[in-house]
Amino acid sequence: MGLDLTCNDLDVKCGSYSRVQEVRYLLLCALKDYVKNQHSDNVDLINYLQSLLDKKMEINYEKYNEEYQKKLNDLNIGGFTSFIWHSVSDGYLSPYQANKFMQTWNIIKNFADKELKYGQDFYLDDIFTESIDSGKDIIFW
What we know:
By secondary structure, the protein is of the alpha+beta class. The protein has helices at 17-38, 43-51, 66-74, 81-84, 95-108, 125-134, and strands at residues 2-7, 10-16, 92-93, 117-118, 121-122, 138-140.
């Protein structure tokens, strides 16, 4: 059993629950690598992102910090937050959140692991695009 996403008539398999955790981890790794490469003078932000990734393929969710999230937002790369810190029991992501996610993806995609990609697109691009274009929520089930 795994996590499926739906928006309008489009259904997409996100993967097993452990795969979802891996995707979240890899998104944070890409974000950290982007900041390290493009904003190397922002040592505090780099250290914060690294602190979230202490164990291989695990995220230290308890280290989430709103101040650093604001810094990511100020750099226009805070869009992964709604997906990474989303509980699958919450039910949905809004079109606004999907749009912010894709804006961040388009900035950092060159730093993303190939496991997250279909070509240069995010592997769940279709469902995020459907939400953005239709104005409908992405439902988790």
